[in-house]
Amino acid sequence: MAKEHEVYFNARFMADKHTHYEASAYIDRILPCTITIPGYMTTDFQKKYGESMRNYLVHIRLGFIENQHHVNPDIFKSTTHLRGTLRSLDEIIKVEKL
Q: Does the first or last residue of the chain, that is N or C, have fewer Cβ atoms within 10 Å of its Cβ?
């Protein structure tokens, strides 16, 4: 069961994973988490805001699950590491230009 959290991430530091992007952030400035951003989301973001997502600090509300419950657990992260996927622009609360 996914638990919702609000997090900020600096999109300038998203890692390109060929089919998607990954951003690292902290929940409540304590718990590390990974945010998966599908390729179509960066295109939708650019259409809406007129610029690349990489030019923004993005504040989102997402559901996060533990790595061990993910479809493809990351073997390099702990089983309790939290992961979430940005699936809609509606999950974006606010953007700030860098």
A: N
1 pLDDT above the threshold of 80: no
In the three-class reduction of DSSP (H, G, I as helix; E, B as strand; rest coil), residue 76 is classed as coil
- Considering the segment(s) 3-97 as one domain, its CATH architecture is Beta Barrel (2.40)
Quick check: 35 and 25 in contact, CB under 8 A?
yes
Parse the chain into domains and list their residue ranges: 3-97
Neighbouring CB atoms inside 10 A of 31's CB total 14
Residue 64 and residue 44: Cα distance in Å, rounded?
A: 22
